Amino acid sequence: MLIYGLTALVGLWTIGTAIARAQVKSQDPKVALVDNCDPTTFNAAVGPNTCVGRGGTTFAEFLAVLFSPLIDNSKVFVGHPAWRFEPSYLDIRVGHTLRLTNSGGEGHTFTEVVNYGGGSIGILNGTDVTRAPECPADPANLVVVAPGDAIQIKGLSPGPHKFMCCIHPWMRGVIDVE
Ligand SMILES: [Cu+2]
């Protein structure tokens, strides 16, 4: 039991070190767009092929975390934490290419904004939330990264860059170019 525990600890330490090294050096900077949509309930509620993943969060569970009754219920979105950028903060070096992959089951955007705000889909925003102007007013104009797609982002200037998903506006990240 003790030996097993020690082995597990060493294993965890090794993984932790590898992650820390990857984040410090960022030789191959990557961000994944992640969600956990359950295809059966999402496609039934929103439409066919809304979700092509194998996640386990039902549409009802997703909706249940959109808002919190503790902060002016239905006015300020919180959002389901399985819908996220992974990692949500990354240091990269000037001139390095950021690789972006949609590992989720739904389409997402990775939109650079001056300030975080609401997105393009009314029902996923709070009633008092102002849309970030970089997110299109018409959802038909969203530039979506489809599930399984990968894109590259080059030429980011030095300094912090804010990105958000214009569909799920709680999906946020900062890419810090140093
Ligand atoms: Cu999204």
How are the elements arranged and paired?
Elements: H1 2-25, E1 30-34, H2 39-46, H3 59-64, E2 84-86, E3 89-92, E4 98-102, E5 111-113, E6 150-153, E7 159-164, E8 172-177
Parallel strand pairs: 1-4, 3-8
Antiparallel strand pairs: 1-2, 4-6, 5-7, 7-8
Give an overview in words.
With 178 residues, this protein is an alpha/beta fold. It has one domain (24-177): Immunoglobulin-like (Sandwich), CATH 2.60.40.420. Helix content is 21%, strand content 20%. The chain is built from 3 helices and 8 strands. The strands form 2 sheets. It has a 4-stranded mixed beta sheet with strand order 2-1-4-6, with no helix packed on it. The protein has a 4-stranded mixed beta sheet with strand order 3-8-7-5. β7 (159-164) and β8 form a beta hairpin. The longest helix is centred in the N-terminal third of the chain and has 24 residues, at 2-25. Residues 1-22 have low confidence and may be disordered. The protein binds copper (II) ion (CU). Copper (II) ion binds at residues 83, 108, 165, 167-168, 171.
